[in-house]
Amino acid sequence: MDIFDDIVKPTLMLDEATARLNVARMVDKARRQGIRFRPHFKTHQSAAIGEWFRDEGVAFITVSSVDMAAYFANHGWDDITIAFPANLRQMDELSDLADRVRLGLLVESVESVAALHRGLNGSAAAWIKIDVGSGRTGIPWDQPAAVAEVLEVIRQASNLEPCGLLTHAGHTYHAASRPEIEQIYATTRQRLQCLRAVVETQDLASPPPARDTSVVQTQNSGSLQISVGDTPACSVVDDLSGVDEIRPGNFIFYDAEQYLLGSCAWKDVAVAVACPVAALHPDRQDVVIYGGAIHLSKDFMAYEGHPAYGLAALPEGNRWGDPIEGAYVRSLSQEHGIVQVPQPAFDKIRVGDLLFIIPAHSCLTVTALGRYRTLTGEIIPTMNVV
Amino acid sequence: MDIFDDIVKPTLMLDEATARLNVARMVDKARRQGIRFRPHFKTHQSAAIGEWFRDEGVAFITVSSVDMAAYFANHGWDDITIAFPANLRQMDELSDLADRVRLGLLVESVESVAALHRGLNGSAAAWIKIDVGSGRTGIPWDQPAAVAEVLEVIRQASNLEPCGLLTHAGHTYHAASRPEIEQIYATTRQRLQCLRAVVETQDLASPPPARDTSVVQTQNSGSLQISVGDTPACSVVDDLSGVDEIRPGNFIFYDAEQYLLGSCAWKDVAVAVACPVAALHPDRQDVVIYGGAIHLSKDFMAYEGHPAYGLAALPEGNRWGDPIEGAYVRSLSQEHGIVQVPQPAFDKIRVGDLLFIIPAHSCLTVTALGRYRTLTGEIIPTMNVV
Q1: Which helix (H) or strand (E) holds A246?
Q2: Which DSSP category does B208 fall into?
Q3: 3-state DSSP call for residue B294?
Q4: 3-state secondary structure of B381
Q5: Please, what is the Cα angle at A363 between A135 and A278, to 5 degrees?
Q6: Alpha carbon of B324: minimum distance to chain A alpha carbons (Å)
Q7: Least CB-CB distance to B367: which of A7, A294, A331?
Q8: Whole-prediction pTM
Q9: Can you tell me the ipTM of this complex?
Q10: In whole angstroms, what separates CA A308 from the centre of its chain?
Q11: Which residue from B minimizes the CA distance to A363?
C-alpha cells in the first residue's frame, strides 16, 4: 500500500528529520557565535514540535500573541517574549503570564509603557521596538530622542525592566540576492549599534543594570541588548556577531519563498501540502487541485515574473520529489488551486492523484491547516486545534 | 459599560439583522422569478446561520467540500450540491452522503464519471461543470462535443442522474462596473443556453428524463437544467430569468470588495473584524492593529489604485460606522495589520482602542476566525471550531 493512500484532502506533510536538522543547525550557529537563541514559535505553533527545540537545549522562545504565550507557558516554557506591541486590551492575560514566566514585552510609545505600569500586575522585561527600515512598526532607528524618552519611562516603571532594542528586519524577505540579505543584516546591526551608542551617551546618568543573559553569554558589554531575527539573514549571514539575541522562526520548515530567496536548499524545506487532483486541463497545462486559499493562504511570492502561491512536486518514495520545473500555483480561490504544470510532468498526473505543493509562506499554511502529518503518518496538532 | 469592552483580540462581528435581511431579499428575488434558490453555505459555514435560511423556506443548499456537506447533512439539510469537482479520494464519504441526502456532484471528464460509476455506492445527481469564461475549471462552453461525451457517460452510469450545466462566472468579481456585471451575466446565460441547445440537438435519441425541481418550479422546459451563481450578478441583475437555479453565497454578509464593486450598499455589509489598536505612526498616518493575515486572510481588492486587504470604520453605537474616507488596510503580516487612516479620523484613535476592518473577502475571513460575535454579544460557531 502506498503510504499516501489514506490522504483524502489537503494535508500538511512534515518531514521531521529535516525540521530537526534545521533546528540543530541554527542552535549550533548561535552557540558558536555566543548569541542567545530565542526562536520564534509562531511558525510551528505546536507544543510537540517545541520539544524538538528543547532536545537541542533551547530555553528561550518568541511568540506572536498573548494566546500563543499562554499556550507555550502551559507546556512548560518559562522565558517568553511576545514579539508584538503589547496588547493593552489583554492586560489581565499579560498579568497572569507575568506571574508564571519571565515575560518579554514590546513597547514603542510612552503611552504603552504608562499603561503597562498602571495595569500590569507582576513584572516584565521591556524591549523597545525599533524600525530599522522595514516600515511595519516600531520607533524609527534614526529617532534616538524618541527612543531615549521611552527608555526613561520604562526605567521609571517599577514593574518593567529595560532590556534593549529589538527589531524585525522583514525587508530581507524582499531581497533579490544573498549579498542583499547580507547587506540588510549589516545595515540593521550598524543602525542598532549606533542607536544604542547615542541613547546610552545621552543617558550616562543611569548606570547599566546587571543583566543575566543565562546559558549563552553574550559578547556585548553595553547596558542595552540588541535582538534581531529574520530567517533569511540568520540563514545566510555567516558572521552574526554584534547582537545579543536572534529570533528566527521560519527556518524550522522554510518554504518556497525562502528556497527562491536562497535561504535554504530544496532538501531543507520540511513541509508540503499534499493536495488531491480534482481536474486536468491539458490544453492549458493546468492542474486543478483540492487545495485553496483556506489551506495554503493567499500569500504569494514572485516566480519567473508571476505571482505564485507555491511550487509543485510529485510524490517520490515516502516524500515529495524535486520541484517540477516551471510549475507553480498560479491562482487560488476558497478551495480550488490552479497549478501550471508544464509537460512532461503534466502527462504523469491523473485526476485523483496527489500533488505536493510547497507553500509560498509556511507560517500561514500551518495556521490554516492546524495540524501536521509526518512522513510516518503521525498526526501532530498545533495550538489551533483541539 | 461599552458593549465592546470585553473584546480583547481580533473578533468577527456579525450584524444578524442585516444578514437576515440580505437572505430574505435574495429568497424573494428568486421566488418572484421562479428560479430555484440553492445558496452557497461556504460563506457562513455555520449550522446556526443555516437556520436563518430555513426560516425563509430555503430547502436546497450548495457547499464547497465533502466535509462541509457532511456537516450540514448532520444538521438536517437533505438536498446538497457540492460545487467542486467530485473528489475521487473521498469516495467513501461521498457514498455515505449519497445514502443520506439528495446529493449533487460536479463532473467535467469522462474519467471522473467512470470513477463515480465504479466507486460510488448510492446515487447522485451529476452536474457538468462548464467554464463560461472565468478560466478556473470546467469544460469550456464552446466545446459542446466534450460536454455531450460526458453527458453520454453520465446517462450510462446507473447511479448518476444527469442534471444539467453548472457554472460559476467568477469573473464578475473583477468587473469594473454594474453594467459590466450585467453584461457578464447576459453572456453567461446565453452561452449556457446555446450550449444546451447544441448538446440537446446532438442528443435527440435520448428522451429527456422527468425532473422534480421541487417547491420552486422553473421556467425552462429543456431536459438539461442551468445553474449559475455569483453574488455580484445575483445582486445587481434585475432579470435573472432563463436559468433554473442560482447559487450565490457571499451576499449574506457581503464585504469590502462587493461594496466597492457596487453589489451592495455599505449598510448591507453584515460583518466586520474588531481589531485592537497596537501602535500609532502619526508621521505616516498608519494605525498598527492586532489583526493580520491569519485573521483577515491575504485576499485583497483594488482601492484607489492600491491593493487593499480591507476598509476601516470607527465604532458607532453598538456597530461600526461609515467607512473612514481614504482609509484602507495597506499591509498584512501574520498578526499585524497596517491601516492607512488619514486625518481627521487618525487623531481620534488611541492605542488600545478598537478599529473595525471590513474585510476584502468575507468568506476567507470567516474561515480564518472560525466564529462570530453578534452585536448583542452572542457567539456563533462555524464548522471549523468545536
Answers
A1: strand A245-246
A2: P
A3: helix
A4: strand
A5: 125
A6: 21
A7: A294
A8: 0.94
A9: 0.93
A10: 20
A11: B334
- The per-residue pLDDT for range B39-73, each reduced to its tens digit, is 999 999 999 999 999 999 999 999 999 999 999 99
Q: Which three cell numbers stand for residue A284?
A: 492549458
pLDDT band for position B214 (50/70/90)? very low
Cell numbers at B215, concatenated:
417547491
Distance CA A347, CA A341 (A): 9
Among A216, A221, A268, A266, smallest CA distance to A39 is for: A216
CB B39 within 8 A of CB B61: yes
Distance CA B245, CA B62 (A): 11
Q: Is A279 helix (H, G, I), strand (E, B) or coil?
A: strand
Q: Are A337 and A277 in contact (CB under 8 A)?
A: no
Question: Which B-chain residues 130-169 have CB contacts (< 8 A) with chain A?
Answer: 136-138
Residue B247 is given by DSSP the state: -
Cβ proximity of B271 and B14 under 8 Å: yes
Contact B209, B1 (CB under 8 A): no
| All residues at 6 or more sequence positions from A303 whose CB lies less than 8 Å from its CB, including other chains | A256, A260, A311, A328
The grid cell for B347 is 487623531
Residues from chain B that touch A367, judged by Cβ atoms under 8 A, are 294, 334
Does residue A321 sit in helix, strand or coil?
strand
Kind plus residue range of the DSSP H or E element containing B182: helix B178-201
Q: Is the dihedral of CA A9, A286, A359, B384 positive or negative?
A: negative
Helix, strand, or coil here: B78? coil
| Nearest Cα to Cα of residue A272 among A16, A7, A12 | A12
